[in-house]
Amino acid sequence: MSKLRTMAGRVGAPVRALVRRSPRLNAALWDVQYALGLWGYLDETGDGGVPLSLIETWAPHPRILDLGCGTSANLALSRGRYRHYHGVDISRRAIETARSLDRADASYAVADIRTYVPPDRYDAILLREVIYYLSVAEAADLLRRLPGLLTTRGRILVQIYDVQRSREFVAVIRGCGLDVTTWQPPEAGEAGPGAFFVLTPAAVAGP
Ligand SMILES: C[S@@+](CC[C@H](N)C(=O)[O-])C[C@H]1O[C@@H](n2cnc3c(N)ncnc32)[C@H](O)[C@@H]1O
Fold first, then answer.
1. Ligand 1, residues 2, 15, 30, 135: which to mutate, most atoms within 8 A of Cβ?
2. Is the Cβ–Cβ distance between 142 and 178 less than 8 Å?
3. Do residues 129 and 68 lie in contact, with contact meaning Cβ atoms separated by under 8 Å?
4. Percent of the chain with pLDDT over 90
5. Residues 35-88 pLDDT 10s
6. Structure pTM?
7. How far from the centroid of its chain's Cα atoms is residue 134's Cα?
């Protein structure tokens, strides 16, 4: 499974760099990838319970914004443990699948997260396996904007499945005035949920 992830990443990287400048082309490319089932394996991947368990350490019964949510099928959200879930993805197809899950207390939007303005403030903003589909400048821009969308107890949770690549993001994250308050190192093995970074606006972080 990890080989598949790596392969999809390597094959897709040059193409993504070319098309991401155009939101329309980017959306079309992601739709095609979902139609071809290239990301179907994600739906069974990792431990989808980890994000909610982590979020509950700082915000029980949270209001969650999931940017680049994909189908969100791999995210375990048990009814009653969250207040609201809002999933956003550039792929219409992925959002159709997400909607078909018929989750309680959930809403969705088809949008480009580089420019999307969500309707609320959130206790947790998730960026799961999406940050490296943005350029470094775009990722930095987004990370600087997200604190303004958090509640007072809110934090940002970045999940990076490809653990080898996760370290390179720490510098980007710190450069955006965010403290990495938690880094849950990955467990040994190929099919784990990857690395998690909990990010807190620097002014809010504890000692
Ligand atoms: C590898 S998938 C991860 C999906 C999901 N977060 C997960 O972990 O299972 C990356 C997702 O990011 C979405 N995406 C990529 N660039 C985006 C953008 N600029 N705006 C919104 N979504 C984007 C893709 O459509 C895709 O669903």
1. 30
2. no
3. yes
4. 54
5. 999 888 888 775 678 889 999 999 999 999 999 999 999 998 988 999 999 999
6. 0.88
7. 12
Helices (H) and strands (E) in the chain, counts: 7, 7
Tell me, in angstroms, the distance from the centre of ligand 1 to residue 128's CA: 8
Domain spans of the chain? 2-201
Residue 139, beta-bridge partner list: none
How many alpha carbons lie under 13 Å from residue 42 in its C-beta half-sphere?
25
Return d(Cα 27, Cα 19) in angstroms, integer: 9
> What CATH number labels 2-201?
3.40.50.150
**DSSP per-residue codes, 84-113:** EEEEEES-HHHHHHHHHT--TTEEEEE--T
User: Which residues form ligand 1's pocket by a CB distance below 6 Å?
Assistant: 26, 30, 39, 42, 68-70, 74, 89-91, 94, 112-114, 128-130, 133
